[in-house]
Design a protein that fits this description.
This protein has about 200 residues and is mostly beta strands. It has no helices and 15 strands. Helix content is about 0%, strand content about 45%. The radius of gyration is 16 Å and the shape is globular.
Length: about 200
């Protein structure tokens, strides 16, 4: 797997190792160090075990281990790391996301601009971070969370794919149905019931 972030890049090898390079200004490289730049691929040594999936947002990164656990690092702003309240602005060391994910086997994790989504092997969806435009899908009552929250209202179907934009989220279920929520500008939610610049707060 090969991913490109805002100012960094990462490679996941077949053996489950992550190599990163580029800017480490926001702790994106997960090296445990505040060293500014890595000009060549450098292995993340601080993850114990085999990595099965990686994702990179604008200023944070996440990895899923083969045992279904999720680790994150980077900027903590907006709660997008999902590790709860912290005084640290940047987490340089991969840190496990717990809370609601403790007993869940995660298959994929997706990083947006200010929010993050985890998809479990059983098709459940958990979200965290900023949701002021509705990108968390939790309604107007929960516009931000620094821990994972279960996203409901998906017709009891398993979710099999997801994609996160800057302020919107897309999901696909086992029946091939597309769910969209978040910032509604420019028609990017592909929802006929929404017109103009209306935000969709739930799937």
């Amino acid at each position: 797997q090969l991913i490109a972030g805002n100012d960094c890049s990462a490679l996941l090898t077949k053996s489950g190792d992550i190599y990163v390079w580029g800017s480490n200004e926001s702790g994106l490289l997960g090296s445990g160090s505040s060293k500014t730049n890595f000009t060549k691929p450098t292995k993340i040594q601080l993850l114990s075990g085999t990595v099965s999936w990686i994702s990179c947002g604008c200023s944070h990164m996440a990895a899923v281990m083969s045992n279904g656990k999720v680790f994150v690092w980077g900027e903590t702003q907006h709660g997008k790391l999902g590790i709860g309240s912290t005084d640290e602005e940047i987490i340089y060391t991969p840190t496990e996301v717990k809370e609601e994910l403790n007993s869940k086997a995660v298959a994929r994790v997706y990083c947006g601009y200010k929010h993050t989504l985890a998809l479990t092997k059983s098709g459940l969806v958990f979200v965290w971070g900023e949701g002021f435009s509705g990108q968390l899908g939790l309604g107007v009552g929960t516009l931000q969370s620094d821990v994972p929250l279960h996203l409901e209202g998906l017709n009891d179907e398993e979710i099999v794919a997801a994609a996160l934009g800057e302020e919107h989220t897309l999901l696909v279920d086992t029946l091939g149905r597309l769910y969209s929520f978040g910032d509604g500008k420019y028609g990017k939610l592909c929802a006929s019931r929404i017109s103009g610049f209306v935000n969709q707060m739930r799937p």
